[in-house]
Amino acid sequence: MNLKETCQKIEPLDAAAMEQARRNWDGVAKPLHSLGKLEDLLVQIAGITGSAQIDLSRKAVVALCADNGVVAEGVTQCGQEVTALVAESFAKGTTPVCRMAQVAGADILPVDIGLCRAVNEPGVLRWAVRRGTANLANEPAMSRAEAVQAIETGIALVKECKDKGYRLLATGEMGIGNTTTSSAVTAVLLGAPVEQVTGRGAGLSTAGLERKRAVISRAIALHQPDPNDSIDVLAKVGGLDLAGMVGLYLGGAVYHVPVVMDGFIAGAAALAAVRLCPAVRDYLIPSHQSSEPAVQLLMDELGLSPVLRAEMCLGEGTGAVALMPLLDMALAVYRDTPSFGEMHMEAYTEQV
């Protein structure tokens, strides 16, 4: 399915399933709406899947791994070789998100969507569009066709996951330099000052932060990405992991698979996805409020309110995975708690 066909197939959330889920919640023997956002999330998931019989039994983190040529400008604390090393570690199950996913009962699916060095570690899925992006300080990060291919790769990954029985996905990523690309994409799409949306990433010094901001400003001025064209923005100043994540959101919407957002990088991709296909917005499931400076701006623009506020900024999908146990706990209450009738209790009613 190509990109245009995907956008045309995205439907509104299933209102009947959501209404049934609300009625199910109201029948649980507890005060009405007392689990707050957790109730809302399950209602949303019912709308996404088209059923109030919610199944989150198989979960996975789709970790998109890609390199960014802008690393050559000294905008990161470590070198580009780290991206491939961490991708291999995803497959070995040794990174922080792997440990968290084990607790959450989720699989890790590392995807080479654009590593500079191909990795041969078993378990790394090979979907590379190209071997890393170009240095956006000097030339567009990729061609428009490559950006579209990366988005369509994300869509295809969701279909493959659904066919394998996964019922809940989380966005993950690994790409040295990808807070630089995310800040560039965010600045263009929001029309915001680069200084307002660019943070220290993985621990830059003050001098490094200033260099990072200067590189982004120079790239935007050089390439003039069109803020009304997400694909143009992704191609000129984005990254393959970001473009692939846009595809994950689109795929989640068209294939009715809930996709949990991670933090800043996931938020930048989510905004690009919504600008490309506005119907995606209702399918977005935010997890946490990252400590990166642009996150609140992105959430406000998207009209989203994350559940967790733990000042995390690790990436990899760790924030999205942290939400999964809360969803499981909410589902246990929703599915297994007795009703008022079964408890021989008078039901709560709405009070005005």
Helix content: 40-55%
Distance between the first and last residues' Cα = 49 Å
In what range is the share of β-strand residues?
5-15%
What is the gyration radius calculated from CA atoms?
A: 20 Å
Low-confidence regions: none
Q: What is the helix/strand order?
A: HHHEHHEEHEHHHHHEHEHH
Tell me the strand order in the biggest sheet. Answer: 3-2-1-4-5-6
Instruction: Output the structural class.
Output: alpha/beta
Number of strand elements: 6
* Main pleated sheet: 6 strands, parallel
Q: What do these coordinates show?
A:
The protein has 352 residues and is an alpha/beta fold. The chain is 49% helix and 9% strand. The protein is built from 14 helices and six strands. It has helices spanning 3-9, 15-27, 37-49, 81-92, 96-104, 144-163, 178-190, 194-197, 206-223, 230-237, 240-255, 264-276, 295-302, 318-336, and strands at 59-66, 106-114, 125-126, 168-174, 259-260, 284-285. The chain has a six-stranded parallel sheet, sandwiched between helices. Helix 3 (37-49) crosses helix 14.
TL;DR?
This protein has 352 residues and is an alpha/beta fold.
Break the fold down into its secondary structure elements and pairings.
Blueprint: H1 3-9, H2 15-27, H3 37-49, E1 59-66, H4 81-92, H5 96-104, E2 106-114, E3 125-126, H6 144-163, E4 168-174, H7 178-190, H8 194-197, H9 206-223, H10 230-237, H11 240-255, E5 259-260, H12 264-276, E6 284-285, H13 295-302, H14 318-336
Parallel strand pairs: 1-2, 1-4, 2-3, 4-5, 5-6
